[in-house]
Amino acid sequence: MLAETICSAVSAAGLGIAAITAYRKRFLAATRIAAYSLVPLGLVMTGVVDWVSDLVFKPSTWVGVGVLGLSWVLFMTSRAVERRMGEGGRKAAKAGRREAAAVEPKASAPSLGQGRTGAQPVTRPKAEAAEDFSDIEAILKKHGI
């Protein structure tokens, strides 16, 4: 009952402020203020305020919240223990994926480029590498670094 009265008073005050704002020829702002001030009245009329006040002031609701919290704690504890012990489907699945990756064949020669095999490392000419660093040095000198 008190919550409904407070919400109605807030709505009435907001509509009064909206009327004063509209009187000052600020119609867009007045429309926004009126929209915001009607929200508490709408919440009272739909019963949301009763639901929230029941949620806040009923001890049985808080016991239910506590039970949900306990459930969450137990669930997270079981997950942590499962990870520590190493037993479970996740480790077996990871091991299976590792074995499958080890069995896969290497890429064929055409996908690696012409004239190279998977065993040969990629090498760049030393002159090209020196050019890259000279460009970087020039940029750093330009910025005074």
What is this entry, summarized?
By secondary structure, the protein is mainly alpha-helical. The chain has seven helices and no strands.
Overview of the structural elements:
By secondary structure, this protein is mostly helical. The chain has 7 helices and no strands. Helix 1 runs antiparallel to helix 2. The chain is flat.
Layout of SSEs?
Layout: H1 2-23, H2 27-46, H3 48-57, H4 59-85, H5 89-103, H6 109-112, H7 126-142
Helix pairs in contact: 1-2
**Overall pLDDT, averaged?**
80
Strand-residue fraction? under 5%
Distance between the termini: 70 Å
Q: Percent of residues in helical segments?
A: over 70%
Query: What is the structural class?
Result: mainly alpha
With helices defined by DSSP (H or I, 4 residues minimum), what is the helix count?
7
Task: Summarize the helix and strand pattern as letters.
Answer: HHHHHHH
Name a few traits of the molecule.
145 residues; mainly alpha; 7 helices; 79% helix
